[in-house]
Amino acid sequence: MSVRRNDAGAIVLDGACPVEDAEPLLQMLQATPTAMLDWSRCGRLHTAVLQVILAARLVPAGPCGDPWVRQWMLPDPPAAGAPGSGRA
Amino acid sequence: MNPLHEQFVIEARELVHQATDDLIALDREGSTPERIDRIFRAFHTLKGSAGIVELPAMGMMLHAAEHVLAAIQAGRIDADTDLINQGLACLDQVSGWVDEFEARAALPADSAEDAHAMAERLRAFLPQTVSAPEAEPDGAANALPGWISDLIASQRAQIARTLGAPAAALFAISYEPHAGCFFNGDDPVGLMRQVPDLLAFRIEPRQAWGGLADLDPYACNLRLRAIAATGRDELARIFRLVPDQVRIVELPAAALPSDSTVPLDHTDLIGSVVREQQKVLEASSAKEDFAGRVGAAARSAANALRSGARSDLAEQIDRAGAAALAQGDPRPLSSALETALASLAGIPVAPAEAGSASGTAAAPAGAARPALRLLRVDEARIDALVNLAGELIVAKNGLAHLARKADNELKDHDLAVAIKREHEAIERLAGDLHAAVLQLRMVPVAQVLRPFPRLVRDMSQRLDKKVGLVMRGEATEADKTIVDRLFEPLLHLVRNALDHGVETPEQRRAAGKPDVASIAIQASRIGDRFVVEVVDDGRGIDPASVRRKANERRLMTADELAALSDEQAIDLVFLPGFSTAAAVSDISGRGVGMDAVRMTVEQIGGRASVTSVVGAGTTVRLDLPMNIALARIMVVEAGGQLFGLPMDAVSETVRLTADRISQIKNNNGFVWRERVVPICSLAELMKLPDRPSSASAAKLLIVAEAGGKMAAFDVEAIRDRLDIVLKPLPGLLAGAKGYAGTTLLGDGRVLLVLDLKEFLS
Questions:
Q1: Which of B377, B371, B313, B382 is nearest to B346 (CA)?
Q2: Which residue of B has its CA nearest to A49?
């Protein structure tokens, strides 16, 4: 399973997260709604997993390990990583 | 059948019921946007479920129905009776297929043809000029659909970042995956990942997120929207498996602002969307698409404003849009758009309610939907629990016996008191437990009333009568067995009311009544009784005609009939073989209805009665127990043995001195409440030796009434009143007359419970 909780209590997504990961992730978030979610090392995220993250309305820590999600789903403006869009 | 299929069957039936109810309400009470929305959603969900369990024929038919509903929603066509009939026929087809699917896990072989034929019939209602909704108008005059301008506005930064050389073709994609798509193995974002030359992408919830606690991780509540510089063929290939969930709209190159490399001020952008909607409103004054245009313009403008965190203005636009629709005049909306633009530009306008408006807008979204948590449990498990709780009640009766024994035989008064105290505590708990368990079996009567709106509608059409069905107290609860058994009697009664009670519109007009007759099914709880009445305002039952019929059918002699009061005469309709209809119709009037009603109702411990006023209508009243699992009995002694008498038959107990008893013919009798009541000795009836009692001693009598007959039973003593679980006589004894069943007494003895009705008749 690619969803786990580390010793510091943060929820870590590690590697590709298939549809089955949605439920354990939701359970962890239900138990600790304010826990930090680290998705910097995740691989391809399934829609169901993304849905849980969206529904939890949390901003995960670090750049997303799934490049497509990083490019298309991060809050904007300013778009993350876009040249020239830094805070002026 | 796998759990997914089971779920589908349950859900599909519920949706069919709900859509049927709403369609009938649409027919009877007229069209409201909410009602059309609900029907649309039910069809839409059905279609989605059909897709999940892979029933393409059903999906195709429902898709056609959805088009028609969308046209109604947009105000392009009206929901007339023909259309509603067709909608109901479509639901019938679904219902039939669901039954078939449950039985055989597949649709019948000819389902595709049936689906096709039904889809054609449904499509015939669509105006010829309207093409299928997928082909969204591409013309610039019509402006862009609201969701596209909205998408462009909100993803401006993305577009600015991604738009390189001017693209040859631009397409906007709106993908609303089915809620169950994950079970299909779909990964909607995964499909989007395959789209080359993506320019903008947005993912959002279809319905605002509730709390995490209520989230179903496997129900997709997402809407994915994108703009891509990709050919239509390529997009069609990517989304080939979900064509029913995807809309692809070609965009003119000019749709994306040419200066998009220079990020615009967000407010400007919203302003331009709002201005765009003003154009939409001004573009055409054609009546036929008025509702659609106003609705779309209001939605687009409100969405754009919300995306710019101006939900206060969005609220005003929503209200103005509703007002414009209601008045059939676009002016309220265009002036609201004007106001919003001014406000965006920083000109202060009527800020009075802005704050409160945004407050109220936030409230419904924030208020957590009260979660009604339901558990489906097999009925047999509940019944096992009911039986156990019943046994506990019986077992606890043993403690009372033990207490008496301690007192009488062991002469230990303290122990007896202690046992009694424990007995009381356990009695209370066992009673609570039993009541709580019985509560599990309580279901609202609405369950059984569901088919009636449809039945009444169909039957009244066939009979050319106009009838409005009113249902009251649908939420009243009673034991499931009783509610389930109620369907047949109610069906008979409603058919009778329609066929015999309600007159034709001409007859009604002649009698000075409104054309539309009323039939009411009303359920209520009166004390511990559950009362269901079927009331019509039809022609009523004429006692003279009932007497004549009863005579013709040789049910009673003319003398007997003449002796009956009018109320008693009307009651004859419950006699076997009685039918008041002059002609036997295919709806009712086979003469089996009313006696079957009374029989069924009496089997579950109820009573059926009828009152009627000629010319004003008829009321049939079914007076039922709330539950049947526990019976109250009175334990009496006769001939030295104990017998149980059901309390619902016992009217009174009286002690009579010998001088009040008179000899009538060969029987003893007495006058009680102005009626002569025969007395019979229970011991004699049970063929037991009568205990000699001194002639002067007062007699103890149990006055019982059942089936309209009355008698008094002479007993030696009354021992107890008990709540018992009545067990029917088993095996060879099952056919024995006069016994309702048996129960165990506290001391382990078997008590025979008598069926007083048998004795009385």
A1: B313
A2: B217
